[in-house]
Amino acid sequence: MSTKVLVTGGSGYIGSHTLVDLIENGYEVISVDNNSRSTIGMLEGVEKITGEKIKNYKVDLCNFEETRAIFEENPNIKGVIHFAAYKAVGESVENPLLYFHNNMQSLINVLQCIEEFEIENFVFSSSCTVYGNPDKIPVTEETPRKQAESPYGLTKQMGEQMIEAFAASNKKVNSILLRYFNPAGAHASALIGELPIDRPQNLTPVITQTAIGKIPQLTVFGNDYSTRDGSCIRDMIHVCDLAHAHTLALNYLFAQKNKTNCEVFNIGSGDGITVLESIQAFEETTGKKLNYVIGARRPGDVIAIYANNDKARAELGWIPKYNIKDIMKSAWNWELYIEKMPTHLQLPTKRLN
Ligand code: UD1
Question: Is the CB–ligand 1 distance for residue 234 below 6 Å?
Fold first, then answer.
């Protein structure tokens, strides 16, 4: 009998890659996704890759009764991975209440069900955004959380703190907070990947959409920072490496290797790469010249951040396999696939709230 895991946000970018990794490692999965920011095309992709039919509940996790009904219908859920959340930094600045409501209410409802149905293992999608603009890099898990740079970042900080408080009150539940750095790239099959709504904000989809001609020109937000080439430094982590960290986190919890009932892990490559170096890596691997200009700094951008990932390596046995070139190559293959994707699987061009 395989172990059943509930994945919220299974149609999302990281969620879909994690479903694949979990299935490939022997877990049974069910997904909850109302497709408010995703398409059923991702689950179709997961099904094609794995050859498994995915059960998805099209439920808004802010609706407690409907969320509870999923747990009631599946009494043998042994672990929960909670991805479902809004994640657009700019949108969160424009509409903070939407972010506070959606990201916090859904988390509260999931935790309430975990408590009521006595589920002992929980993994939460956190982000390096909780470090704000760090004083020292690379950041370790002990680096203090500084002021959040956006309401989105604040929801990740509040989420972590809510889970910490919950863990202090409920010793039966073991939680892991995974702090992702900058997820990028796509599955090698190019059947799943990142599907931005509207115009993308994140660097990698902006790069691939510029290369394919959907965006006329890429703007590098600032080349006058105190970094080796003046552009910001990030830690790009291949989404398949990131997905595998979730499987390992669950394995770790199921093997009862956790030291406390709420542990934090940085999930980043450990390498800092500048924006200009990322562009160069794309050009080198794909042979495509990018049309880019240097523009003004983007407000709220952290200057430089990358992970110390020693803890994930030592405790979870996590070893990232892919480099920046793999990331860019797979992201480009995915962009080429999106071009051919049937329109009913494409995302709406406007957000649905
Ligand atoms: C942000 C969040 C991160 C979140 C992610 C998801 C912060 C500090 N980080 O990452 O937690 O998971 O969004 O959406 O809140 N860039 C350009 N031109 C572009 C696009 C980006 O130069 O057209 C640069 C940015 O200035 C930045 C780097 O590329 O220096 C990475 O940007 P982006 O991909 O948006 O990610 P973050 O802002 O690091």
Answer: yes
Total number of domains constituting the chain:
1
**What is the best residue among 147, 181, 203 to mutate for testing ligand 1's pocket, by most ligand atoms within 8 Å of CB?**
203
Mean pLDDT of 164-188: 98
Whether 99 sits among the annotated catalytic residues: the reply is no
The C-alpha atoms of residue 273 and residue 56 are separated, in whole angstroms, by 37
Tell which one of 37, 145, 182 to mutate to probe ligand 1, the residue whose CB is within 8 A of the most ligand atoms.
Answer: 182
Contacts of 1 (CB under 8 A, 6+ apart): none
Ligand 1 pocket, 29 CB below 6 A?
Answer: no
- Residue closest by Cα to atom 11 of ligand 1: 129
103 in a structural domain: yes
Domain that holds residue 230: 4-345
Asked if residue 351 is part of any domain, the answer here is: no
Maximum separation of any 2 CA atoms in the chain, in Å: 57
In DSSP terms, which residues pair with 265 in a beta bridge? 178
Q: Say what the pTM is.
A: 0.96
CATH number, domain of 252, equals: 3.40.50.720
- Residue 353 resides in a domain: no
User: Cβ–Cβ contacts within 10 Å for residue 63, how many?
Assistant: 14
Is 350 contained in some domain? no
Average pLDDT, integer, range 318-323:
98
| pLDDT, tens only, 84-114 | 999 988 899 999 999 999 999 999 999 999 9
Q: Are 335 and 208 in contact (CB under 8 A)?
A: yes
218 lines ligand 1 (CB under 6 A): yes
